Amino acid sequence: MKKILIVDDEPNIVMSLEYTFKKNNFEVFIARDGQEALDLLKTESPDVIILDVMMPMVDGFATIEQIKKDDRLKDCKVIFLSAKNKESDIEKGLSLGADLYMTKPFSIKKLVEQVNGLVGL
Amino acid sequence: MSSAALLVILSVYLALLFFVAHWAEKKAKSKWTNNPYVYSLSLAVYCSAWTYYGSIGVAANSGLNYLPTYIGPIIIIPAWMVVLRKIIRISRVNKISSIADFISLRYGNSRFLGALVSLVCLFGILPYIALQLKAIAETFHVVTKTSLSSNFLNDTTTYVAIALALFASYYGTRYVDASEKRKGIVTAVAMESLLKLFFFLLVGMYVTFFVFDGFEDIYQKASVMKDFAQKNTIGGIPQAINWFLLCVVSLFAIFLLPRQFQMSVIENNRESHVKTAVWLFPLYLLLINIFVYPIAWGGNILFEGSNVNADTYSLLIPQLMGNKTITVLVFLGGFSAAISMIVVSCIGLSTMLSNNVLIPYGFLGTLTSGSPEQNTRRIVNIRKVGIFSLIILAYFIYRVVVLDYNLVSIGLVSFVVIAQLAPSFFGAITWRRGSRRGAITGIIAGFAVCTYTLLIPYATGASHIGSSFISDGLFGIALLKPFALFGLDYLTPIPHALFWSMFANIFVFMSVSVTFRGNYRERNYAEMFVDIDKYITMHESAFIWKGTAYTSDINKVLKRFLGEERTKRAMSIFHTKYGVDNNQDLADARLIKFAENLLTGHIGTASAKILIASVVKEEKITLPEVLKILEESHENIIINKKLTETSNELKAITGELKEANEKLIRKDKQKDEFLDTVTHELRTPITAIKAASEILHDDDDVPEEIRKQFLQNIISESDRLNRLIDKILDLEKFETGKQKINAAYNNLDHTIEKALEPLQQLIRNKGISIHQVQCGITDAFYDEDRIVQVITNLISNAIKFCPEQNGNIYITVNDDDTEITTIIKDNGKGINPEDIDTIFDKFYQSNNQNIKKPVGSGLGLAISRQIIEYHGGKIWAANSKEGGANLIFTLPKS
Predict the structure, then answer these.
(1) In this predicted structure, which of A22-26, B357-361, B611-615 has the lowest mean pLDDT?
(2) What residue in A sits closest to B684 (Cα-Cα)?
(3) Which residue among B39, B88, B378, B439 sits deepest, i.e. has the most Cβ atoms within 10 Å of its Cβ?
(4) Cβ-contact A40, A66 below 8 angstroms
(5) pLDDT band at B696 (very low <50, low <70, confident <90, very high)
(6) Which domains does chain B have, with CATH numbers?
(7) Could you give the CA distance from residue B638 to residue B642 in angstroms, rounded to a whole number?
(8) For residue B170, with 0-12 CB atoms within 10 Å meaning exposed, 13-18 middle and 19 or more buried, which class applies?
(9) What fold is seen in the domain A2-119?
(10) Rounded CA gap, B591 and B611, in Å?
(11) How, if at all, do strands A26-31 and A2-7 pair?
(12) What CA–CA distance (Å, rounded) separates B523 from B829?
């Protein structure tokens, strides 16, 4: 069973993502901001991380920087899912090592397809 | 009263004078010394002992004839205001320190003319000062009932003269720059003017209402005296002409007397003071004349038949009635009148003597080699000695030349002598063609006539004895009778002398000026004097000069007199004023005029010119050239002024544009940030709605419970979206000023209650305790709905900040005199210090590319700020020491 970490501070969005990925046979982990995610990643190494950008405390960009420093997580795919849709934001996200940058609002179907593609399902 | 007692009173009075002068010097900047009333009162130095005693004598002996001396000035006052302003301006920009400077500068800065004017003044004024001393002596003896002693050591006047000489030479020469203001002297003179008026009115009322039974009583008793009717007529046409000429000589005096010029021009430190003087000075003259007539005729009634000097009626009447106090007070008033005239005249004369005679004709050589300190000391000493010797000289005239004339006649002789300056003086500011030669010859001609018709007869005492010179004329030629020159026999000596001397003076002045053209320098100054208003701001530019001069040479000369420090300061003023480069080797005309001005106050205009001329090489310019340059320079001044104005305007506009531009950039950035935030804020609920609906749409197997949850999410996110739109619109309304505030008196506790209501569910869910103390304020003035919105926003924020467990929110209200302060405090982590100043900004989260999620929606706090600012209050955030954030707002009470 593939593992997925959802990092977002919007509970309603998280709820939809959690339901969908559970239904698609993922083991789902949830963090409400970057700090929680990094704490969780100390013990878990998910296959995919869905990362929001604007969050309280530690934001998405700072989080991916930490993730990329961790050798243990080098196979972990990161997808940005953000309402920030300016080109400069997208470029920044990808340059930090994300595999994909999706803008909100997004299509759940497409997101699942992308995630499946990334983990080779 | 004994001499000793009166001497004690005099000494106390003089000490008081010293004290006032001393105090005023110390308070030179205070409004007690710098006000139009002090200025106007100081002009009353015009009223000397002549007015104080002499008018009564004239009124007693020859009726109304005392009046022209006051009517003249009163008539001219409206014109005086206009002319005086011009004179003050000319004197200020040229650093003029005496009437001799004024006249000589206008006629090409002529050394000879300056000396001539000074000598005329000296001639006219010295006997007049002597007479003031005589008045002091005589009245002293009247009060003490003693008689004049032939031993000068027993004469009180000796000591008074010495005391005055000390006073005047000390306070009159405090500054080496003679154009500086002498606050001490001016204030002391103003005080004396007040005192002499007061004492005069006092004795007037005493005589009129206590000795007699009012004006009516005096008139009735006087009208039966034998010569009353004859004394109190104007006396037909010839007498009317006499009157007219006396008025004319007095109105000249108000401009030309050295003491009037000193007080009205040199000591004027604000042009606007003239406005007050224009009504106060004539009023003063009127007041001091009210009781002249009653006292004079009261005296005539009381002393009928006895041989007493009518000049001293104001002392004799109270003395006769046995009122010592009033006698002494009147004496002090007369003393004040005399000494203020003496002191101010001597200061004026000594400045002229030093700056227009002694320095340019003698001491200049010594001064050019001295150090600045030595020079300052020398110049001040010359003036000190000048003042001292003038008073002592006047004392000698009084002691040695027995002056058996009454106060008025010598006063008027003095006026006629001074009037010789009138044509060149008034010509200076009105007639461009007036030339140096015209002025010199005019003054000499007028003075000669005046000597023949007045000075010689008076000096030889001929007018009293009656001699063949008077009755038959020089060499027995009837046409040359000094009091009836060329057969003009119906005028009294004074108007007669005035008429002929003025006739000669004006005729010669004008004809010589028209016949012989003046040189370019005269013409240059003529322009600057006549059109002073054109040149007032940049008057150095109007000075024409051609030649070679080095800045360093001029600097050297300046340093000799001003010292290193002041020269440097003056030069930097010059450089700033004209925008000239500091390191310019060659000096231009402006610098030469500027340097002359700097020296003028110290050594007079003539010497200043000589000194500067000695270090520069001037080329001659022809008159047509001068006229051309003047025209050009005038145009240049106008153009320059316009350019400066335009450039200043441009600068101001550029500044405004820059500011506006920066503001626009800031606004633009804010707008971008606003859109960024708003779109982000809008997308978030849409994202949630879309995700939930997509699931519900695509997946038919969603369990009932989860399906309901998703639907619930859709509803709440829709609400959120709606609220967001409301907030944006709200904010927009506040920004554009469309928002209305419906303020009323409210109970703040109720308002807080209302604000908490919708949040109760959330508070319970998070297990937060609210700590609130009732404040009991029932009369706070605000729009309740809006303040509910603010408090709700702030508390929601506090809720978000609160820790998961044991969240506490404290609501406190402080009430003071001016405002009500509401503090909402939580026990969370506090606000990031970087954000503390910006969290109430509309879009603060995007500052510094900050991508952290904002506290709250970002808009709620911004709206809160708008609401509070609309109420005239303030809102801000602060972290408290023990942790947690404080969100604070104030509401003003009024």
Answers:
(1) B611-615
(2) A83
(3) B439
(4) no
(5) very high
(6) 3-420 (1.20.1730.10), 423-534 (no CATH), 537-619 (no CATH), 628-736 (1.10.287.130), 744-892 (3.30.565.10)
(7) 6
(8) middle
(9) Rossmann fold (3.40.50)
(10) 14
(11) parallel
(12) 85
Burial B66-79 (b: 16+ CB within 10 A, else e): bbbbbbbbbbbbee
Write the pLDDT tens digit of every residue in B775-791: 888 888 898 888 998 99
pLDDT tens profile B434-447: 888 899 999 999 99
| Residue A5: pLDDT band with limits 50, 70, 90 | very high
Residues 10-29 of A with CB under 8 A from B: 10, 12-13, 15-17, 19-20, 23
Helix A87-95 and helix A60-69: axis angle, to 10°?
Answer: 20
Residue A48 near residue A2 (C-beta atoms within 8 A): yes
Of B683, B699, B706, the CB nearest to A104: B683
The whole-number pLDDT of residue B850 equals 43
Nearest CA in chain A to B717: A12
The shortest C-alpha distance from A46 to chain B (Å) reads 23
Instruction: Give the integer Cα–Cα distance in Å for B8 and B185.
Output: 23
Residue listed under structure tokens 């007690």: B32
Residue of A nearest to B703 (CA): A19
Sorted by where each begins, the domain ranges of chain A are 2-119
What mean pLDDT is reported for chain B? 82
Q: Comparing C-alpha atoms, which of B793, B802, B792 is closest to residue B767?
A: B802
CA distance B354 to B100: 11
Tell whether pTM > 0.95.
no
Cα separation, B833 vs B824, whole angstroms = 18
Amino acid at B720: R
Name the residue among A9, A54, A109 with its Cβ closest to that of B851: A54
Reply yes or no on whether the pLDDT at B403 is more than 60. Answer: no
The answer to whether A106 contacts chain B (CB < 8 Å) is yes
| C-alpha triplet A76, A11, B684: angle, nearest 5° | 90
The nearest alpha carbon in chain A to B718 belongs to: A12
Tokens for B331, please give them.
């004496």
Question: How remote is the C-alpha of B720 from its chain's centroid?
Answer: 69
The pLDDT tens digits of the residues spanning A97-106 come to: 999 999 999 9
In sequence order, what DSSP letters do the residues of B842-877 get, joined into one string? TTGGGGGG--BPPSTTSHHHHHHHHHHHHTT--EEE
Residue B851 confidence (pLDDT): 47
Please choose, from the candidates B510, B511, B457, the residue with its C-alpha nearest in 3D space to the C-alpha of residue B483: B457
Mutate to test the interface with B, among A7, A12, A32, A106 (most CBs of B within 10 A): A12
> Containing H/E element for B887?
strand B885-892
Contacts of A10 in chain B (CB under 8 A): 684, 687-688
d(CA B25, CA B825): 61
pLDDT of the residue at A81: 93
- Inter-chain contact B710–A16, Cβ cutoff 8 Å? yes
Residue A105 and residue B687: Cβ atoms within 8 Å?
A: yes
Q: What is the CA radius of gyration of chain A?
A: 13
| Contact indicator for B822, B889 with CB cutoff of 8 Å | yes
Token look-up 């023949």 returns B452
pLDDT attached to residue B687: 93
User: Does A87 contact chain B (CB < 8 Å)?
Assistant: no
Maximum average pLDDT range among B125-129, B702-706, B793-797, B832-836: B702-706
Contact B688 A17 (CB under 8 A): no
β-strands B808-815, B819-826 pairing: antiparallel
Q: Which residue out of B686, B851, B857 would a mutagenesis test of the A interface target, given it has the greatest number of A Cβ atoms within 10 Å? A: B851
Residue written as tokens 């008429």? B499
Strand-strand pairing, B547-548 and B617-618:
antiparallel
